[in-house]
Design a protein that fits this description.
The protein is 17% helix and 47% strand. With 154 residues, it is α+β, with helices and mostly antiparallel strands. It has a 5-stranded antiparallel sheet with strand order 1-2-3-7-10, with no helix packed on it. A hairpin with a 6-residue loop joins strand 2 and strand 3 (49-56).
Length: 154
Amino acid sequence: MQSVILSRSMIRAAVLSLALLAIGACGRKKEQPTTETSGGAIAPGSAVQVADVTLGRSVDAGSKVMNATDTFSMRDTIFASVHTTGASPNAILVARWVYQDGQVVNETSENISPTGDAYTEFHVSKPSGWPAGKYTVKVLVNGQEVQSKDFTVK
């Protein structure tokens, strides 16, 4: 009788162990590498690709930069137009503005649902004036940095 009870207990323990292993395996996501292409970069697990980032002092109604530049004055509003391709029902696009010493001066995000070519506008301003120096805007898709653009404030 004891051997029957032990056998049932051992079977239950084995079944429970297998069930826990299966649950743990289902929760894991397979890591996908970031893919660089000639047209831009794709974030892991995303069908949205950043084709280009353009900087300037203004954008048009379609969120495209007018008169692209990478040199700004201290009181300029700095615009970044992020051109994306691909489709996604929900992607998070982030612009992280960084000063030359690594300090993040601004970060904004937009939830996008593109179905092809799309442009998203980001901008920063500082009424008291930007410190002169080198800056970078880093563009992230779903938390992964996919492109950056350097600029100068004089």
